[in-house]
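To the structural biology subgroup,

Please find below the input and predicted structure for LA2681 family HEPN domain-containing protein, which we are adding to the shared reference set this quarter. The sequence is reproduced verbatim from the submission form. If anyone notices a discrepancy with their own records, reply to this email rather than editing the shared folder directly, so we keep one authoritative version.
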Amino acid sequence: MVNENVHTVGIFADRAFDDKDTDTLQKIAHDCLEWVKSGEYTLLEKGILAYHGATSYSNYIHLKYKGALRYSDDMNNENDFEMCLLLFRLSLENLTAYQEEADLNEGSEESQYFSTYLLMAYTNYANLLQKCGRLMKALSYLKVGVGRDFPIAIGNFAGFLMDYATFDYDKGHQSVFANESYQLLKAVLDFENIEQYAYKHYEGLVAKLERFYPIEFLKEPYEFEDYSLGDSKEEVGYRKWCLENTFFLNTLNDAFPYSVSATDILHLPNIVAKIDEGPKFHGLFNQIKQEFVSARYMVHDALSSEGAHFSDKDVHLVNTLDYPVYGISIEKMKYSYRSLYSLIDRIAFFVNEYFEIGIKERDVSYRSIWQDKIRKGKNSYNLKVNLKSRMTGEETFNLPLIGLYWLCKDIGKQKIEHHYIEPAIEHISKIRHHLEHRYLKVHDSVLYPITTESWENRDDPLAYSITVDEFKDAAIRLLAYVREGIILLSMAVHLEELRKRKDKDSDEIIMPMSMDRYDDDWKRLF
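Predicted structure (tokenized):
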């Protein structure tokens, strides 16, 4: 079924790891990438080869750097992590493509063989994403294994929830995550054939939870109250859509698709500021949140709208015979798309001000905040803070901030070995570029592809043409990216505030300033 050479690679990789042979592990990873790029292997074989390469590189990073990212002048292993991420992504791409092509009988030996590699790839990819601070993305990938009762995925999901809780300033959420982690860990310890190292690790996590929480609280599954999802069918449908897609600005939504998660409760933690500064960061975060939830609703509204709107009546348009889609619904999608993309730079503006990086306002972007200098010829200037070095420093380590950096790398279309780390971002970015600066044309998802196949030179030469379904998929992905960025920002500030309080002079007086909640009834123009 599979070329024997593919299995031989796995055997050599395991032996190199046992021998702590970092040079061989690195060579195996690069060789696997070349084999995947060649046309010599099937999709299944390419998926397995990429998996062996990714695992080899992960083991290389573990042996050489103890699995940690480094950005200092003396040591920088960012390229190693990029290569490892690329190989895991190629493994998942090829395995998924094989699944779509192959007619696998559920329960067959071939199906079980394939599923094992797919689940291992998802799980190990999630482990690497966690080290890169992509906390929410790591949890989402582990859910694949959790849903299929894959024990390592379940145990790691529990451990990641414990980490996630430490970055959440909400103590109520922390206790809920602790209870869920405990339930999952106790369940996974009952599985048979768990490797000894994993079993001991999960036992240690159980013991850690039992040190911090009463046994009586942990041993009984947390019972969530049922909350109303709205006063109308439309509102209930919208909130269910947000829950199912994990779109609420609420960390509970990453683990629980229940009504308790159906609020945008996330905000900033308490911030220590000078007495004359006021709540400027809370005000900026208000705006970021409001723009996100409004864009989110416009996407849902556009996707759920039926029929023509009265505002489109008697608007004279010509039929260009390529099945274009016009109307207020598609324009809402475009407006929300622009707004979501602008939020990435608004998050960067927040980071520049909060961490006092020193970038001039006109130069702030999601790319520039990670530099040590703004390079503008004669107008170049050095920055006050090198954020990349700072966030991995021993005293200032900030994993959510690291995650924000790797998120920005995705948005910035980072290429490794001629591949994008996140291939979907090229399409997402191209849509945004044509929306802002060129001409985006959206077509009917059924009729347009049929027409273009039967009619050569059908495409509009002035437009970047996509279907409604392609636009929808891009908007959904972009919503997930921006949500992740907003939550990582809140968590990064939380860790920084904890560090500030720890470093405060004990004689320094901090006066609390209470801020009431902005009432929902005030959210109107008139």
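Summary notes: The first strand starts at residue 373 and ends at 374. The radius of gyration is 25 Å.

Regards,
Lab coordination
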